[in-house]
Design goal:
Length: 390
């Protein structure tokens, strides 16, 4: 990161890990095509397969269950495009789940219901009859056909709130649904075990855990349906055609290995995140930590400052040298209240006043001190201006 800057936007993207950079640089010289049978091809193939093992190991999956993609957006889209009769999801999902699901509903290709039962902490409420209830409320006659999917994120990108996924997945599977989880923000921050979660599909993105942008994976349970989502050659077991992005995949593998090693020290990141919240409370006691009472990722906090505007706070903090984001800033430039905070029932004015501070394994006490100083300065100016206007 640049000198004098404090980067606290790891949920938007994590800085490239040195291990990932080294693996990518080395892979740039792997001359062969992984599909070629000659020595050069076999060398490139080995790079891809080693990375597949590392990615699988990070989430407790088998290497054969990992399908490399161009990122989690593609992985999420691929799952939703499997030809489901009915899809159940929540309003707190990432846009890369919500948008394709809404399009399927709009085009009449699937019955899609959004569970409204998100408690004020941001945790989904579920019951044994979750699916029947959901489809009973969607205004159509009868249930959808038998091919049904529940998609529930493991952890939220804005609040860090972790969902009781294993329990929800069990309930959904008991009702005959397949289960997908977007585990993009959870992987590398908390232990993720594909098999123990009881899900059929799991999406990952390399750049959230210190790998390069533009590569990710869909983990698919053995035997779960996944038609080819990019047609062409036979790559990725005929699911995703196209010559593999070998350097990016190598970087993903190295980042996954390093992230797995770093999991043991995430309590240090959690302590830094707690200090961010304590500093905020000390300076602005009225600030609200969204989802504070729920189980959360160790690295994420969503802080709403009543009376403030998140965009203004982000710009002011940026000028003070600190990078954070307003709501979901992956598609930056987006203005307006976050759909996640709205779905949690946060009052709209408060939802528009929420910033996200997200840390990572390289964050330090110095970063927290720089943030605290900038926060004090920015909020002081803000309240002086508000007093002047009043
Ligand atoms: N899901 C979640 C929860 C995310 O935070 C993101 C990244 N903003 C994505 C999916 C999309 O990932 P990618 O950038 O790899 O397409």
């Amino acid at each position: 990161m640049s000198v004098g800057r404090t980067y606290l936007d790891w949920n938007a993207t994590a800085p490239l890990r040195p291990e990932a950079r080294a693996a990518m640089v080395a892979a740039l010289d792997a001359a062969g095509n992984p599909s070629s049978p000659h020595a050069e091809g076999r060398r490139a193939r080995a790079v891809v397969e080693d990375a597949r093992e590392e990615v699988a190991a990070l989430v407790g999956a088998k290497p054969a269950e990992v399908v490399f993609t161009s990122g989690a957006t593609e992985a999420n889209n691929a799952v939703l495009a499997c030809g489901w009769d009915g899809i159940v999801l929540t309003g707190i999902e990432h846009e890369s789940v919500l948008a394709p699901a809404r399009k399927l509903a709009c085009d009449g290709h699937a019955r899609v219901v959004e569970l409204k039962a998100i408690d004020p902490r941001g945790v989904v409420e579920y019951g044994a009859d979750l699916v029947d209830e959901a489809f009973a409320c969607d205004g159509s006659d009868g249930g959808p056909g038998p091919f049904r999917l529940l998609s529930l994120q493991l952890a939220n990108n804005e609040t860090g709130v972790v969902q009781p996924l294993a329990a929800v997945a069990e309930a959904a599977r008991a009702q005959g649904l397949k289960v997908h989880t977007d585990a993009v923000q959870a992987a590398g921050r908390i232990a993720v075990d594909f098999a123990a979660l009881g899900v059929d599909y799991l999406s990952l993105s390399a750049h959230k855990l210190g790998g390069p942008k533009g590569v990710g994976a869909l983990v698919v349970r053995d035997g779960a349906r996944l038609p080819a989502f990019i047609a062409g050659g036979g790559q990725e077991r005929r699911r995703r055609a196209g010559t593999e992005n070998v350097p990016a995949i190598a970087g993903f593998g190295a980042a996954a290995r390093a992230a797995a090693d770093d999991l043991a020290s995430m309590h240090r990141v959690a302590a830094l995140r707690d200090r961010v919240e304590a500093e905020v409370k000390a300076v602005t006691p009225g600030a609200v930590v969204v989802g504070a009472d729920a189980e959360r990722l160790p690295n994420t906090t969503s802080i709403a400052l009543p009376g403030a505007n998140a965009e203004t706070l982000v710009i002011a903090l940026d000028l003070a040298g600190v990078a954070v984001s307003a709501g979901a800033a992956c598609s930056s430039g987006k203005v307006g209240a976050s759909h996640v905070l709205e779905a949690m029932g946060l009052e709209p004015a408060l939802a528009r006043a929420a910033i996200r501070v997200s840390l990572g394994c390289a964050s330090s006490a110095r970063d927290v001190a720089a943030f605290a100083e900038a926060w004090a300065q920015v909020t002081h100016h803000l309240s002086a201006r508000q007093r002047a206007v009043a």
